[in-house]
Design a protein that fits this description.
CATH architecture: 4-Layer Sandwich
CATH superfamily: Aminohydrolase, N-terminal nucleophile (Ntn) domain
Radius of gyration: 21 Å
Shape: globular
Number of strands: 15
Strand content: 25-35%
Number of helices: 9
Oligomer: single chain
CATH topology: Glutamine Phosphoribosylpyrophosphate, subunit 1, domain 1
Length: about 300
């Protein structure tokens, strides 16, 4: 099911792709800097596999055993809105501090750098700045919500914090969609497009739970606890999401690409963000020296 969703997600980008899989070994806090030049690495009880190009080019059947054994996994396909495609450090999932996560969208990283004392980045993406700001909050809910509320732009993100090893955090700020569903065995899946679930289930031979698909409303943080082997909701919180005027203009292209009309209308029913106006154009300095009056 995860592999099928990864291939379908190529609709959202083929610049790079990756998959992070929780291992059956002990989960530990991350004490080393991320291995930004390695396509297959282990970090804090997770195995991270990623590389340039589409998901089907990064995925290999040799990873199947690790994925089947993983109680949780995070996948991503990338359309490079910020940061070039030549750096592996720009490919998600990213290890940032104690976090392993990914983000779909495009946000003003400079606002986060101004608001938070962020460390030197190893890549060039807004995803890294966003995860850096979240990592600094150490998983505490109210400061985490404050970071999400400070985000300006499009964002749907998923991350795990090594300080809270059995929790998965899923959040949606503005525009970028985030859909969730369950299968009849109780497994939880998420994706950018709810239409992928039925297609992936047919490919994988998975039976989805009837009427379980949920389009997460904007301004929502969901905590899923997978300690028992089956995910359960550990908490859900609201915050105010903020978009830019250009995000509203691009929504049909970047948010609802591939959506059915029914899913698009259903998601738009949960739109509740604040929109910042376009910045005013700079006014050139046209002052001239004042005329002198001769008597």
């Amino acid at each position: 099911m995860c592999v099928a969703l990864g291939i379908l997600a190529e609709e959202r980008g083929v610049d790079s792709a990756g998959l992070a899989m929780a291992t059956t070994g002990a989960t530990t806090e991350l004490t080393r800097a991320p291995a930004v030049s390695r396509r297959d690495t282990n970090a804090g009880g997770w195995r991270i596999v990623k590389g340039p190009g589409p998901f089907r080019g990064v995925w290999d059947a040799k990873y199947g055993a690790a994925l089947n054994a993983a109680p949780a996994a995070i996948g991503h396909t990338r359309w490079a809105t910020q940061g070039g495609t030549g750096k592996l450090a720009n490919a998600s999932p990213l290890q940032v501090g104690q976090l392993i996560g990914t983000h779909n969208g495009d946000v003003d990283a400079w606002r986060l750098r101004e608001a938070y004392d962020l460390p030197q980045a190893v890549g060039d993406t807004d995803t890294e700045a966003l995860l850096q700001a979240l990592d600094a909050q150490r998983g505490v809910i109210m400061p985490t919500l404050a970071v999400l509320e400070a985000v300006v732009g499009r964002a749907a993100l998923v991350w795990t914090d090594r300080r809270w090893p059995n929790l998965m955090m899923l959040a949606r700020t503005a525009i970028s969609p985030l859909a969730l569903t369950l299968d009849t065995d109780g497994n939880l899946y998420w994706a950018s497009n709810p239409g992928w679930f039925a297609k992936a289930a047919r490919t994988a031979g998975v039976e989805l739970k009837r009427d379980s698909t949920w389009l997460m409303p904007e301004g929502t943080l969901l905590l899923a606890d997978f300690a028992s082997g089956r995910p359960r909701r550990a908490g859900m919180y609201d915050f105010t999401a903020t978009a830019r005027a250009k995000d509203d203009r691009l929504a049909s292209i970047v948010a609802y690409r591939g959506f059915s009309t029914k899913d698009k209308l259903a998601d738009q029913a949960g739109v509740a963000h604040v929109t910042l106006p376009d910045p005013r154009p700079a006014i050139r300095n046209s002052w001239r020296s004042p005329l002198r009056t001769h008597v």
